[in-house]
Amino acid sequence: MAGPAPEALKGEDWAGEMGARWLASLDRFEGMIAPIGAALLARAEYHAGERVLDLGCGGGATTLAIAERVGPQGAALGLDVAPMLIERARHRASAAASSARFVCADAATAHLDTPPFDRLFSRFGSMFFDAPVPAFANLKTMLKPGARIDLAVWANPRDNLWMMEVMGVARRHVEIPPAVPRAPGPFAFEDLGYLEEVLTGAGFGSMDVTAYEGLQPIGGPGTSPVAATDFVLAAMAVGRVLDEAGADVRDAARADLIALFTDRHIEGEGVMMGAKAWLVRANV
Question: How far, CA to CA in Å, does 236 sit from each of 13, 24, 39, 187, 243?
Fold first, then answer.
């Protein structure tokens, strides 16, 4: 086992390294979480003419889908801190002749030169704020009184085998410190009590939650065990940790991941592993 890596899973640099990793594997990332995004969109029930802000829009897939639902009388604006992802989103919108628009800015401090929005949407884009209460309070200034927000956030890691089992493999080869509860990152809002504290502190109320549970295709639908392994090592933060441990450690972990994913592979579907997310609704 390699020596300790006390900052191994430090907060993601979405404007830099993590944004670049996401862009390089954009189709695989989006294919993996598409079912949860579809569930959140269905729960949001957007109507023609609504103005929607898409927080942490990434490559813009959800913003484009929202734009279709709200139509030309509405508005869909994607907001993300990663310039490379916003550039790709704009290219997609242009190619699709979509009315979706995109802004590169930090949502925690941004001030948009637009009329206020009726709705806020975020598929896994709301959990990375260093100071979430003031960040959500800033987002509230972009919304109309009575506006509704719809968020997808990951539930507890133990209910997300796609993460737990991958990290279990990594920990056979490198030392990874335990996650810090409530720290910025994918599982910052696993505790719904904490999320309610954040939203209440920022001026939102009437929080309502439903659980999404299902099998998630690692690296997207139809991905082979080898391709899923290469996706995890290239695109996820754990890959960086194994890179830093050296080629021998990385190769051994890669072999173990291939074995794990082979065991979880379903022909015609891909590497399918359990996932759980909270679909959260609240109002200004």
Answer: 12, 11, 24, 14, 11
